[in-house]
Structures are given as structure tokens and as C-alpha cells.
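The data are passed on as follows:
___
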Amino acid sequence: MKEIICPKCKSKEIIKRGFIKTENRDKIQRFGCKSCNNRFVLDNPFFRMRNKEQFITQCMDLYYSGMSFRKIADHLKRFFPKNVHYGTIYRWIMKYVPMMENFTDKQNIKAGWQLQGDEVEYKRRASAKQRGVRNEYFIDIIDMDSRYLVSSSYQKDRTIPILNKVYRNAKRKVGEQVKVISTDGLMSYPRVIRKTFNLKKQATRNPKIIHQIIKSDSGKFNYKIERFHNTLRERTKVMRGFHGCISSAQTLMKGFEIYYNWIRNNIALEGQTPSEIACPNVQIENKNGWLELIQRGYNGK
């Protein structure tokens, strides 16, 4: 059990002093400090939240499993008299996805010999002031062996600086494990891969990384990343476009990356999650994976 310290005087002489009764979260243990007589409850990711952590994470799981915010709210209304508003579920995701990212984005990957990179075009509805529909891109890189989504980012464009950032993040996670990177025929990719993986422009007999360009008109495809895109489209096609600022869309898509890597069982991996293969030393012990990821991200472990 984690050692409890008084937040006021930093004393370790702590005793239990009853419970705080809440309307939706049952009883919460209260502690007291013998040194300064301060009473407090333990700080945690769900501190001052009106709903139980199981209730919040259940809503997140329903959303990334395919239900919309409004359908989740309607579902809760049938079983819980004091249900939450659909906007509240959205705010929970905006709050907890960056917290989980603090943990998931720091993990080194046990990658195979090949990565596949691609991008998916999306149409996002701009805010009321801007109006119109914007063409934007979800840029992603996946490991061939584990199906782990190594790096991804939702961006307004696919310029070289943006692609550099995504591929540099992948390089940070996989190190020198990868020998081949497969992409489509986008003209920016050769320059991006040379820069991010520190390759020379001149061809060598034994290059560190082989850049494999697969063009669709040749009849060949990056099948595994295209299969992931089918899974991604299956979820996002019912969203009817992202609304408001781009940061909202980025957080929603980052949440799907976490769901795909750490929560969702992959049939091609015999029911395992990609993280179980790519991160064998960091396993999720709690059946409620959302809850454990939030706690680890909050504690920075």
C-alpha cells in the first residue's frame, strides 16, 4: 500500500478518521494527521468527481466501442434515474485521455523488423465562426508483428514538418529494431524517412533502413495498416464529422489509439491486445483497463 503523507505538514503520522458520505460515490475514507490535526482524503484521478470511477470508465468504453455520446446518455437514462448529460461524457474523455497518454506514450516498443505508415483523410466540420468543412488527416505508423499503433497524430495537413514529428516519435519508441518501413507513393516520405532515421541520401550497400514504397496502381497494398484503417473507419463513420476546434478531434483520436493498443482484443492476435505483445513488461492487471491506465498516467508510472 502506498505510504500516506499529510498534504499540509508532510507528516507520516496518519490515522483513519471516519468516512465522507457522497451521493453517487458511496463512502470515501477520510484520514487525519496527528501532528497538525488536518483532515483530508487521498488525492486521486477521480478526486471531487461526482460519479464513481467505474461509471466514468464504463462510459468511455461504450464510446470507443461504437456508441455515440447521446446514445450512451439515453442508455444510462433507462437504468440510472440520475443519469449524466452527453456533454459530461465528452468532458470526461477530454480530461482522462491526456492523462492516459502520459503513461502510454512513454512506453518503449518491442517491435518487429517492419513498420507500415499511411494516412487517412477526414472531413471535419469547423466551428460556427469558421464554418465549412475542412479536409484533414490521421497519420499513423503500425508495427507489422504486434499490430501495435506505434505513432499517430490527427493534423490539418500532411506536410513534411508534420510527418517528421510523427516518424520521429516512432523512431524514439522502436530505436534500432526496425529494418524496413513501408509507405505509399506520397512524395514527401523518402525525405521524411531519411531525416527522421538519420539516413544518407546516397545509396549504400547495407542501408540501416530500407524504405519500401508500395503504390496502389501496382496492385500491392500495405494490408495490415489498411486493415487497421477499416477498424478506424468503422468507429469514426458514425461520428458525422468532428465538431469545433482541432484539439478536440486530436484528443478523441488519441483515445482511440489507446483503446486499440491497450483495451481492445485483436482477433488476429488470438484475443490478445497489441500492447501484450509490444510491451510484454508492462501488462494491464485490472480487468478495467481504462481505470488502470488512468491511475498509471496520473501517478506517472
User: Anything to note?
Assistant: The beta strands are 14-21, 27-33, 39-40, 114-125, 133-143, 149-155, 180-183, 210-213. The mean pLDDT is 85. The CA atoms of residues 266 and 273 lie 6 Å apart. The chain has nine helices and eight strands.
